Amino acid sequence: MRKWSAVLILIMGLFVLSACGEKKYEALAINEDVDICVICNMQVKDDAFATQLTTKEGKNYKFDDIGCMNEWKQQNGSDNIGMDYVRDYNDKAWIEFSKASYVYAETLRTPMAYGVISFKDTASAEAFVAEQGVGEVLTAGDLSSHDWKQNTDMMNMEMDGEGHSHSHEEENGEAGH
């Protein structure tokens, strides 16, 4: 009888320890002076296109475009990701990747021309599509089978004569978005 009691106590103790040991992941602030996309080596701007993920070991990776984050996942797998974040296009708030809604259109201008932008909810994504007259609303699940092609024509248009990219406000004709 004592043997079973000891085993039961040990099992309960393991449950308590595993519950206490659950890691909490938080999005980190973007520092434009030092943050570089680990895929394309471009500066990560503190804007609506920035994304990031943290591995279960606590290593943080930042990306200038959700397509670059997807490429990292393809290269490294998703099993070791503790949490991944995207930004709401409207207010730049961090959102868990799996909880966001997305809009894709080949003609949407994003830093690396993947044409995918994120929103905090489906209603915001649908409103964007209605307002812009282009785009398809997607879920995080839909992105797993999305064709992650870059619009190379759009990438060439992104650069001005001096090799500088324009802000999304300028490119989309938005003033003070």
UniProtKB/TrEMBL annotation:
It comes from the Bacteria. Residues 161-177 have a biased composition (Basic and acidic residues). Residues 158-177 are annotated as: Disordered. PANTHER family: HTH-TYPE TRANSCRIPTIONAL REPRESSOR YCNK. This is Copper chaperone NosL.
